[in-house]
Design brief:
Blueprint (H helix, E strand, L loop, with lengths): L7 H8 L14 H19 L7 H26 L3 E3 L3 E6 H7 L3 E11 L3 E8 H11 L13 H26 L4 E2 L3 E6 L15 E11 L3 E10 H16 L95 E4 L7 H5 L17 E5 L2 E11 L2 E9 L2 H8 L1
Helix pairs in contact: 3-6, 3-7, 5-6
Length: 416
């Protein structure tokens, strides 16, 4: 080291652990400068290797598709579970199945749904096992507070049915968005531990890029978790293309064609003087109604079609007087119900009392009715008033002798 002053660059090199460079312009050794760069690149490689798979516009479109479809699915799930379900705005990312398993090493319920019409591919829905247990408990009539931690076949069937209803609603929403029919196959439900299983689904590769749309699902204080919708990249791009093409190809309403100029009507003979209308008691001869105009024909306030007379004699309509006699009832099939049993009751009278008066009743108490002694009693059939009668004694048994059959007007009054 010379007696000259140490420069600032040399002080920085000493503080950073390096030696004093032999010359100011000498580059640092390749191994010392490139190693940190390689380490940082290796740490970010897993998050940046799929950046060019989807553009920002495609991610926004997939987020909008997920937002609309899962919004309608949340409504369906609310009805099935009997609790309010809220599914928040989605987050779209591109990853691989192995990376998802590394990030979430826990048991998941995997629901595979295949598209049969409109879209070529599959859709995978991943729900945490503990959330699936709560959904199964609610589907089977429980309250969801103490679900069975072990998901058996019955619980998986219950969750599968709820997911089937949800994805059916999603397919309906996609049909509306894409302006074409979308249909799905019945779901396949499997319980898979992301931390131990090597392969999650037959339709998803471990290292291939996939589109993962994450939603936050809340179920009325019982569930506050995350569900994932996993799509192959080809299916995701097909959905984006269907969304853009569906909105771009919506047919615009064609303007209605201008009506053709009507030709002048032919000269018509003078209209004959109509004869005096017949009396109301006589039936007028039937008048054939004109056929309805065809599509594009004339309507009210429009000129008549070519070749049709302009002046047509019109007569006032005549109607047959109404018959006030009673309608004859066909009782040919009355025998079919002759053996139907009916309940006949006899009512001595009625009264109204308060709860206090009812509680004060004891043995020997007298309840005064709304009828006088000796007044005819009411005879009801199936609770409906039918006749009046008087109480008689037959061989030490009480009976009722019918004295008056109620008229239809009286029966109607009783029904009211």
């Amino acid at each position: 080291m010379s007696d000259d002053m140490i420069s600032q660059e040399e002080i920085d090199a000493l503080l950073n652990g390096g030696g004093i460079p032999a010359a100011d312009d000498s580059p640092a050794p390749a191994g010392e400068s490139e190693a940190p760069a390689d380490a940082s690149a290796g740490s970010d490689s897993s998050s940046s290797q799929f950046d060019d798979v989807l553009t920002d516009v495609e991610k926004d479109a997939l987020g909008e598709i997920g937002n609309i479809s899962m919004g309608s699915a949340a409504t369906t799930l609310s009805v099935l579970l009997g609790h309010k379900v809220n599914i928040t705005t989605p987050s779209v990312s591109v990853s691989s199945m192995s990376m998802i398993q590394e990030k979430y090493p826990m048991p998941y319920l995997i629901v595979e749904v295949g598209y049969t019409i409109g879209i070529d591919g599959n859709n995978v829905l991943a729900i945490q096992a503990q959330d699936a247990a709560i959904i199964a408990d609610l589907m089977m009539g429980g309250d969801g507070t103490n679900p069975d931690t072990e998901i058996n076949e019955i619980a998986m069937s219950a969750v599968g049915e709820s997911m089937n209803q949800m994805m059916g609603t999603v397919a309906t929403s996609l049909s509306t968005m894409f302006n074409k029919k979308i249909d799905i196959s019945p779901p396949k439900v499997n319980l898979i531990d992301f931390g131990s299983e090597d392969k999650v689904s037959e339709v998803l590769g471990q290292t291939e890029p996939i589109v993962c749309t994450s939603f936050r699902m809340e179920v009325d204080g019982l569930i506050d978790s995350e569900i994932m919708q996993i799509l192959p990249v080809e299916v995701a791009k097909e959905m984006v293309e269907a969304l853009t093409n569906g909105s771009a190809e919506e047919p615009e309403p064609e303007p209605a064609p201008a009506p053709a100029a009507p030709s002048p009507p032919p000269a018509a003979a003078p209209a004959p003087t109509p004869a005096a209308p017949p009396p109301a008691q006589q039936m007028a001869p039937p008048v054939m109604a004109a056929p309805p105009p065809a599509a594009g024909g004339y309507g009210y306030g429009m000129p008549p079609m070519q070749g049709m007379a302009a002046n047509v004699p019109v007569q006032p309509a005549q109607f047959i007087p109404l018959n006030t006699q009673p309608v004859q009832v066909n009782d040919a099939n009355i025998g079919l119900i002759l053996d139907v049993p009916l309940s006949v009751t006899v009512e001595l009278g009625r009264t109204n009392k308060s709860i206090k008066e009812i509680l004060e009743l004891t043995n020997g108490s007298i309840v005064e009715l709304d009828k006088l002694a000796g007044e005819p009693v009411d005879i009801n059939v199936n609770g409906k008033f039918l006749a009046k009668g008087e109480v008689v004694v037959i061989d030490e048994n009480f009976g009722v002798r019918i004295t008056e059959i109620a008229s239809p007007a009286e029966r109607a009054a009783k029904l009211q």
